[in-house]
Design goal:
This protein is an alpha/beta fold. 35% of the residues lie in helices and 14% in strands. The two termini are 39 Å apart.
Length: 399
């Protein structure tokens, strides 16, 4: 109990300047329900991105439309966390409906650089050390990219693995709830609590591969140099990491993801656009209206591309356990009007595969750049095991 109060006190003190939270829980007056040591999360403080319903706390989805909105029930993921013994410490900022414009949150690594997209509050709170675990969501790249920009671990499980009921929907074919933490161990602890009956991976040497795809030509020179050096370091440590080319057609996945995202976003946010247009940010209105350019034929073709590539990637991964690649195209931009580009994440999100990023590298100005690790769909525990191994290999004491 005292540990929870200490966490809440630190959040209140440090969030004045960080601006990562929209609501901070009150100090518990008595025993925290479910937080006994016998529960798998036993009192672990967790922050919830303000795109997920949380009973007893305001949930505004980052929009003026929902100012003061307080759900009667928790979203399914919040219920699962509470039942596993977690203490919900508060709500973190989100861009409006998990889209745009940027949040008010600052990047604790350097406040002149963007903390990134819609999970910026969760990533920044973890990076500042004021919360051990925070929930984020990813529709294109909003768990992995903020994690990369803020220098923390970001984990996006397989699509559908964490329940999304009670989350404000943006693009149902892509929306995925994920986790942000300081180390892989915290992500694994929460994952095991939420998916306790997942099958343990076989204890064998990981078969790894390095991919410069997608969008290598758009990656900054310092990020290219950083990941090449990171892979070289792992190879020097004895890991076999051959270069790999993704299956034919993979490079079409980013556009397919963008079409699916836009087509479904246009439908999902139409009620707000019709009922309360005057309360929506002008840039978001333009984005929603621009999304109408895609026809149902475009949407079907994008869905077909994604389905075909899931099959191709599954075949590709039969001889591999994980692919290593960049989590972002460079450092967090020194521009608070942007959230950065999800170009290194969108394809993997649309493939529905689990991904995790480690704060393994730095760029030209010393800001973090994440190493992204991707496994085949439903191989989440295998991915977490491999990520923990690579985290240890890349730790300063392992150099």
């Amino acid at each position: 109990m005292n540990a929870i109060r200490a966490v809440l006190r630190r959040i209140r003190e440090e969030d004045v300047s960080l601006r990562a939270f929209t609501h901070i829980a009150a100090d518990p007056e008595g025993p925290v329900a479910g937080a006994s040591p016998g529960r798998p999360l036993g009192g672990l403080p967790v922050a919830i991105k303000d795109i997920v319903d949380t009973a007893g706390m305001p949930t505004g989805y980052g929009s003026r439309i929902y100012d003061g909105h307080q759900p009667l029930t928790d979203g399914a993921i919040v219920t699962a966390l509470r039942q596993a013994g977690a203490f919900i410490a508060g709500k973190t900022t989100t861009t409006e409906f998990a889209t745009s414009p940027p949040t008010r949150t600052l990047n604790p690594r350097n406040p002149r650089h963007t903390p990134s997209g819609s999970s910026a509050g969760s990533a920044a709170a973890v990076a500042a050390g004021i919360i051990p675990v925070a929930l984020g969501t990813q529709t294109l790249g909003s768990v992995l990219r903020p994690a990369s920009f803020c220098g923390v671990v970001g984990f996006k499980p397989s699509y559908g693995w964490f329940p999304t009921a009670g989350m404000k929907q943006l693009a149902a074919s892509l929306d995925t709830i994920g986790l942000l933490s300081a180390h892989v161990a915290e992500c694994e602890r929460v994952y095991r609590a939420l998916v306790p009956d997942d099958v343990e991976p076989e204890p064998r040497t990981a078969r790894l591969a390095f991919s410069r795809q997608p969008n290598w030509n758009n990656v900054t020179p310092d990020a290219r140099a950083a990941i090449e050096a990171c892979i070289a370091r792992l190879r020097a440590a004895g890991l076999d990491i051959p270069d790999a080319e993704m299956p034919p057609g993979f490079d079409a996945m980013n556009e397919a993801a963008n079409i699916i995202h836009d087509y479904e976003m246009h439908r999902a946010l139409r009620p707000e656009l019709v009922a309360a247009r005057d309360k929506i940010d002008g840039a978001l209105i333009a984005r929603i209206e621009r999304a109408a350019r895609w026809s149902v034929g475009d949407y079907r073709a994008a869905l077909r591309t994604a389905a075909e590539q899931r099959v191709a990637f599954g075949a590709f991964m039969k001889s591999r356990d994980a692919v290593l690649c960049l989590a972002a195209g460079g450092e967090a931009p020194a521009d608070l009007t942007t959230t950065g580009d999800p170009m290194m994440n969108s394809a993997w999100t649309a493939l529905h595969v689990p991904c995790i990023t480690l704060p393994a590298m730095t760029g030209a100005t010393g800001m973090p750049i994440g190493l992204q690790i991707v496994a085949d769909r439903h191989q989440d525990l295998k991915l977490l095991r491999i990520a923990a191994m690579l985290e240890a290999a890349l730790a300063p004491t392992a150099a």
